[in-house]
Amino acid sequence: MWVDVLIILLKVLVVLLVLIHLGALLTWAERKQSAAIQDRIGPNRARIAGRAAMGLFHALADGIKMVTKEDFVPAGAHRTLHTLAPAAALFPALVVFAAIPFGDVLRIGERVIPLQIADLNVGIVYIFAISSMAVYGTMLAGWASNNNYALLGGLRASSQMISYEITMGLSIIGVLMIYESAQLNVIVQKQGELLWGFLPKWGIVVQPAAFFLFLAAAMAENKRVPFDLPEGESEIIGYFVEYSSMKFAMFFLAEFVEIVIVSGLVATLFFGGWQVPYLYADGFHWPFGLGVWQLPHLLVVLLQVAAFGFKVLIGCWVLLTVRWTLPRFRYDQVMHLGWKILLELAFVNLLITAVVVLLIT
26, 94, 130, 235: which has the fewest Cβ within 10 Å? Predict the structure, then answer.
């Protein structure tokens, strides 16, 4: 019994450390990538022992700066909610990843360890329920700051979340209809099947429209360019305008952890998750009768975990690229896109998927 508890705690610790460190690393990656896009050098001043390491030490310098800055609470602000809001924004982002499988199973002797913290039979429902709570932190921050511009940012965030949550949910229903399960590990396992004997049955193959709808809605939920109206640095500054020190750092980190979460969900639902084409528990089974390449179990597990990590990193790179490629929408354009374009496309995709599933079953 205590061994099972220890294994679960170890998986939680590993996932949290990876999320936090990858989120912090993305703060450097975004600045470095934006510099490359705009033909600049980017961060290169922070040094240790005379070495800049491509600006990697700037993430460490930012952490030190956040810790040493004054924790300011404006006059008239609701102190309790002003303090709780950053935690309310960061906590859901950290908890959501518990339902995302980062591998199949690890066998050590007779013990089988699933490479997933919580294998829920309603994994998708859990993710939507928890992730939708993050907007409470944004809204509380805007209201508790006693600042009209912060409140406007919070209102924008809540309306944007409601507008795009529906499209996101409808796009996922098509995936659930194809794989006949709301359990994320089962969805990933079924993506290991082959269509016509050679094509992996990944979500991007069977639900291409849902992929683009989900990605657009997820970026809107994440409140990043071109959907960063709740922040709007050039106009209202945003819901965190009255935050400093580690409270601001929590909002900042939550944004980048959400990028990892979105990338993990996209990889899980549409790109096979930990699946590697033609790789099974005992090794590679090449199509068209080309033979079997036997591999040891530990190597198979490492390849699956590495494949999932690679897909997540590619997703993060895409989201960062979009951030520095597209201009910000106007607020009316964001609402029009969500309610009159993406929502209708999601309904059409769902209808077509239902008809196809009915005809082939």
Answer: 235
pLDDT in tens, 275-297: 999 999 889 999 987 888 999 99
End-to-end CA distance of the chain: 43
Query: pLDDT tens digits for 83-102?
Result: 999 999 999 988 999 999 99
DSSP 8-state class, residue 194: E
Domain for residue 27, yes or no? no
Confidence of residue 135 (pLDDT cuts 50, 70, 90): confident
Residue 219's closest CA among 160, 146, 270?
A: 160
Q: How far is CA 281 from the centre of its chain?
A: 27
Q: Which two tokens stand for residue 143?
A: 């209201």
What phi, psi does 245 have (nearest 5°)?
A: 55, -140
Domain assignment of residue 44, yes or no: no
| Average pLDDT for the chain | 92
Q: Residues 193-231: pLDDT tens digits?
A: 999 889 999 999 999 999 999 999 999 988 888 899 888
User: 34 in a domain, yes or no?
Assistant: no
| Distant-in-sequence contacts of 80-85, Cβ < 8 A, 24+ apart | 80/144, 81/140, 81/143, 81/144, 82/141, 82/144, 82/145, 82/242, 82/247, 83/247, 84/140, 85/137, 85/138, 85/140, 85/141, 85/144, 85/247
Residue 269 lies in a domain: yes
Residue 236 pLDDT: 79
Q: Given a cut of 90, is residue 321 above it in pLDDT?
A: yes
Q: Which of 136, 217, 219 is nearest to 170 (CA)?
A: 217
- Number of domains composing the chain: 1
Residue 293's domain spans which residues? Answer: 77-360
How many other CB atoms are found less than 10 A from the CB of residue 198? 11
* pLDDT value of residue 72: 87
Amino acid identity of residue 229, one-letter, is L
